[in-house]
Amino acid sequence: MGNFNIGSTISFGNYKWLVLDIQKNKALIITNDIIELRAYHDKYIDITWVDSEIRKYLNGEFYDKFKDSDKSKIIPVTNKNLDNQWYGSNGGKESKTKYFY
């Protein structure tokens, strides 16, 4: 990715990204662009992040749009998926994912 600082805008894949944090030579980035307008899930049912259609899309079809050289720079993270403290909804199981929100 090159040299950059927190607050920098970088190109990665086909998108522009804002660098939010840098720790131990790893950057947390967020896209400045709308990737795609999609629903969280394709049915109106009680569902958690682990089983959502948007997670399936991000870790599949969206991820596959990156070149192999870019894919190697995407570090999977483990999301704890805590219960929602305001609505009391179930957060679900921990998930290993390439993206999170």
What features would you describe in this structure?
With about 100 residues, the protein is an alpha+beta fold. The protein has two domains: about 1-35, no CATH class; about 35-100, no CATH class. About 15% of the residues lie in helices and about 25% in strands. The chain is built from two helices and five strands; from the N terminus they run βββααββ. The strands form two sheets. Strands 1-2-3 form a three-stranded antiparallel beta sheet, with no helix packed on it. A two-stranded antiparallel ribbon has the order 4-5. A hairpin with a 2-residue loop joins strand 2 (about 15-25) and strand 3. The radius of gyration is 15 Å and the shape is globular. It starts with 8 loop residues before the first strand and ends with a strand.
Portion in strands: 15-25%
The low-confidence parts are none
Number of strands: 5
Oligomer: single chain
Structural class: alpha+beta
- What is the 3D shape? globular
Major beta-sheet overview: 3 strands, antiparallel
Distance between the termini: 22 Å
Q: Give the SSE string.
A: EEEHHEE
Lateral arrangement of strands in the main beta sheet: 1-2-3
Work out the radius of gyration: 15 Å
The overall average pLDDT, rounded, is 85
What is the number of helices?
2
Which descriptors apply to this entry?
three-stranded antiparallel beta sheet, 101 residues, 2 domains, two-stranded antiparallel sheet, alpha+beta
Nutshell version of this structure?
This protein is α+β, with helices and mostly antiparallel strands.
